[in-house]
Amino acid sequence: MTRSKTFQAYLPHCHRTYSCIHCRAHLANHDELISKSFQGSQGRAYLFNSVVNVGCGPAEERVLLTGLHAVADIYCENCKTTLGWKYEHAFESSQKYKEGKFIIELAHMIKDNGWDC
After folding, report:
1. Which residues pair with 74 in a beta bridge?
2. What does the pLDDT profile of the chain (117 residues) look like in tens digits?
3. 37 vs 5, 22, 85, CA distance in Å?
């Protein structure tokens, strides 16, 4: 008996969404996009307010381009690919707006649904 893949959450049809490039699980609604001006470990990345179908690893302190942050790697719940990270804590006051937000690298996501609607 084979089991079909099921995702934790499906974003509404005909809404612009971003999906995992590896398994097509929905990751974020375009309305949750905060910025396209971020840099991940593998190139350009987007900052999102919220995401779906994503698991979170343990937080650790890392020195990023904008200073010291406590971040936790995030991964696709379906295929387990590491996608980026979640900002748990920013140590500099100018970076506090990132706390609780998510970075997903462009190398791991694809535009899906509704971009032509």
Report:
1. 56, 84
2. 444 455 576 666 657 899 999 999 999 999 999 999 999 888 999 999 999 999 999 999 999 888 999 999 999 999 999 999 999 999 999 999 999 999 999 999 998 866 555
3. 33, 23, 15
**What is each CA distance from 90 to 45, 60, 68, in whole angstroms?**
18, 12, 7
Provide the residue ranges of all domains of the chain, joining segments of one domain with +: 38-112
CB 27 within 8 A of CB 18: yes
Exposure pattern of 23-56 as b/e (b: 16+ CB <10 Å)? eebbbbbbebeeeeebebeeeebbbbeebbbbee
Neighbours of 2 (CB within 10 A): 3
8 Å CB contact between 62 and 69: yes
Give the number of other CB atoms < 10 A from CB of residue 99. 13
Q: Report yes or no on whether pTM surpasses 0.90.
A: no
Whole-number Cα distances in Å, 6 to 2, 12, 16: 12, 16, 20
